[in-house]
């Protein structure tokens, strides 16, 4: 959209030059136009530019989150399609439960977000010793922030793609992105502490807890370490990706695709949450339908818009203290501590005014079923669901899922072709076709997904 706008401006500028040039012959004015081009890279070495570098890294991560979160939500039945497949709609192949192996956009955006943040820190590390009076990198606030965003960008890659590759290297297991993030978050915590930035320190520690939990599920980290990180974060802590209502490119993507301005492309109707409401999964019931027919539903469907993000500039949590409680609960279950797991989950349920789980749980399966449902509610529409499903399935974690759509018999009878469950649907995006075609260390036909 922004590229097209620049081209339109250039064409308009060109068409306006001719009459000006004719006048110029008479009055002898210089009518040439010089394009100054982009800023020189060296300008970004200045201390005054460093916060802008961090802001750019944050913006790249927000851009990468847009489709990845939205389409991942549709893939895992957090929402259902309710309209068009173009513009801000949900593609037909995603509605059918698969990703496109020939797509590159989401991979490119996520890889760019990782590179921008990591490269920003590398720049600070390189130039600070050469700037008189500059602070040490070990206590430099922008450096901590860049590392934190780099950690979250790596988590985004690991949680959403089949495999990963870094800076032209070969394909690696998706869990390597979590290990990379763990190191970045650790660095960010140390620098933020020295710089006196408690918010960045907590956000980095919560991020580290989340990737350690992912690694622990695969036996690549200790649950005790994940739980210790989580316990250090306050319950009421929330760190969000920020959005703006001043420009469409910076809107909260999920909200705008469903804000009736003009899109009504997804709905909570027909999902688990329609019949099992939870204060963490708010939605409105309207008499309107989506903005177009949905083939598998046989036409237009009721439009029940999500209300977790009510505004174009609503922030999307990257982490929260309540997620940390669930990491501590999952660590307890991994240690077969059924009472400890229930106690951790009940802290949040008491905060919401919900009835508590029994202490202890009657079985490990009952405990994991509760945990999976609590994470589905707590992290709803935050782009975390697809990897939860993947890690639990790939590691045979017990307990039932909040699964599928049309769990109620009446709807199942009405739409028999739309009854689905998570086992039949994709659980990760492909490595981008552009990566496979341009990176000599990645086979062209290597997609990384079964």
Please give a structural write-up:
The protein contains 16 helices and six strands. The chain has helices spanning 2-27, 47-75, 92-95, 105-127, 141-160, 175-195, 198-217, 223-231, 253-256, 272-275, 321-334, 338-352, 364-378, 385-394, 409-414, 433-438, and strands at 80-81, 163-164, 172-173, 238-241, 266-267, 316-320. Helix content is 50%, strand content 4%. α6 (175-195) packs antiparallel against α7. The model is unreliable at 1-27 and 406-410 (pLDDT under 50). The longest helix has 29 residues, at 47-75. β2 (163-164) and β3 (172-173) form a beta hairpin. The strands form three sheets. Strands 1-5 form a two-stranded antiparallel ribbon. A two-stranded antiparallel ribbon has the order 2-3. The chain has a two-stranded antiparallel ribbon with strand order 4-6. With 450 residues, the protein is mainly α.
Question: Which helices and strands appear, and what pairs or packs with what?
Answer:
Layout: H1 2-27, H2 47-75, E1 80-81, H3 92-95, H4 105-127, H5 141-160, E2 163-164, E3 172-173, H6 175-195, H7 198-217, H8 223-231, E4 238-241, H9 253-256, E5 266-267, H10 272-275, E6 316-320, H11 321-334, H12 338-352, H13 364-378, H14 385-394, H15 409-414, H16 433-438
Antiparallel strand pairs: 1-5, 2-3, 4-6
Helix pairs in contact: 2-4, 2-5, 4-5, 5-6, 5-7, 6-7, 7-8, 7-11, 8-11, 11-12, 11-13, 12-13
